[in-house]
Amino acid sequence: MINIHQKTLNDLEFPTICNHIAERCVTQHGKIKALAITPYPTSQEVLFGLQQTNEYVSSRLHETVIPNHGYDPIDREIKFLDIEDSVLDKGSFKKLSTISETVNIHLRFFKKYQEQYPTLFKTVDPIEYTTAIIDAVNAIFDKYGELRDDASPLLQTTRRRINQVKAKINTSFASALSQYNGYGYLDDIRESVVDNVRVLAVTAMHRRKVKGAIMGSSKTGSIVYIQPEATLQAQRELNNLLFEEDEEIKRILKALTNTVRPYTPLFTVYQDILSAIDVIAAKAGYAEKLNAVLPTITKDRELTLKDAYHPLLLISNTSKGEKTFPQDIQLTTDSRIIVISGPNAGGKSITLKTVGLLQLMLQSGMLIPVHAYSRMCLFNKVLTDIGDNQSIENHLSTYSYRLKNMNYFLKKCDKHTMFLIDEFGTGSDPELGGALAETFLEVFHERNSFGIITTHYANLKMMANETPEIVNANMLFDARTLEPLFKLHLGEAGSSFTFEVAQKNGIPYSLINRSKKKVERGKIRFDKSIANLQKERSKLAKTTSTLKEKEQKAAQRDQKLQEVNAKVQSKLESYQELYDSNQRLIYLGQKLDTISEKFFHDKKKRELVAELMKVVQIENSKRKKQSVKAARAKKAKETQVKKEVQKEVAVIRKKKQQAKKTAPKPIEKPKPILKIGDHVRMQDGKAVGTIDELTKGKAIVNYGIFTTNVSVDQLELVTRSKKK
To answer: Model-level pTM greater than 0.85?
Structure first.
């Protein structure tokens, strides 16, 4: 039987978690239940609650989304139904029908998808499925919440007569309105409504000329409101019919109330199940906010937390944009108790609270912010002694209070207990208090309890070092700056860095040195050794972190190179296949060219056909039989490769064109000035001629056999004339 004291819940700030979950509830009953969450009393209920939350979280990944569970509270309706001969109003029936339909939707949904949501199906399966309430209400009310005309034969008849009488009243009133308006007896507004009755707006001077009942007058008295005599009889009949309608409605509502009264216990169950689903949904929403998961729940006594976050600290830091440091913590049968030491403000208390709060959340059916590979067992008791618990009311000092707490621990501790003690043994003389704390720790160890304590006492560190199943641990600090790294390291005690921290905060070295002389040399050496070990550990941690980063980067580069290599190899194979295919086609083309040339000369058709058939048979003998699907796939692959080649060729061509554009232009030599008698030739020609005449950019060139008139720009000099 699991029994966790309220003090433990308060010490670990569990009510704050409940508040966060209550804020995510959409129903009033769900909020109340969320605020009252406590760890489940049995391990079976714990596992069931965890599966409920886990299934709801997983529903976000499925296409089958869980239906909406919101509802209007029906506490008032349930109280009325418990009173004999009470009658519910119209709005109450709509609420009862709606909540019944909401539950039925969930029952049908979880029955249909019980393979995906087995635990949630078991949660709702005991609920009775019935449409009797919905059918009874729908038979009386329409979709707008109004009584149907056919709710009873008498109501239907009465309403039909009411409509007839109203039509008669409207007709007679319209006639009177037209008549008296023609006489000029009415005011400009002509008509009005008094006590839901249409009346004529008669000017005061003509009030005696209009027959009917006076219903009132205007504030100034200039207008008198008169109901025409023609409508009086019909109005009295209408009033009687409205009374009959009201009486019939009361009778129908009373009958309907008596119909649903036997389902009063079921309505209570409806609220209970929907509010329970509301809490489960809120837990799931909170888990998503924390990126929480369900760790492995083991029957072995083990607590292995990987990347564990304190939920409240994580939410607070995330909202501020600050980093939260996760912790790795392990408690097993071989290392059941951890003694965390080291200077204050290093995260000892947060680490202790993280373990306790996550354990409480898990045993309350909540997913927790840890790595999925984490493993946890369940504890029957979680005992805490955290913070300064000085009791003013009971006139107890901190130490007296803590001693009473230790006495309670000694009574309750067993192998199914986890204890969490912050600043173990403080509040008294260090040596005497430390000795008593050591004795308490021995008892906890003898009773096979699991636990974590934080301390500054050297004797407890020594005990942890010498006692099997008790492990020293420390919070890592930067050796140079003495800034905390918020990382728990198991296996070594932590130095309090008392003198180092004092020196860092400006205490004169002479005072620190005098203080050192007041302390036993062995204790200073022990603390110094621990401090040195922590400094070495800090250096090793940094080196390890750097090496891991380099290793990860190298692995990423290696993976990228392998991927690139695979792609290149695949492309080379594809290009080789394309090249072989093209070479075969070139060979066939050459073969066909040879055969056609031979036929061109000898015109022998038989030999032509024989040669062609021979070529076809040779080629077919090389082909492998393929299915249509395989042939299509091969063709598609070849097409794809061709497209890739064309793209790459296009890119290469584009690069060459750009290179040509960007390449420096060759320095053009100055063009020589041509003279008569020079030997020249056309820029695109080979024949050399002699210039006979030069006029206005034109030259007559003599080639011996003929002469031609060309532009000087089209000529280039071969040799100069020898004439001087």
So the answer is: no
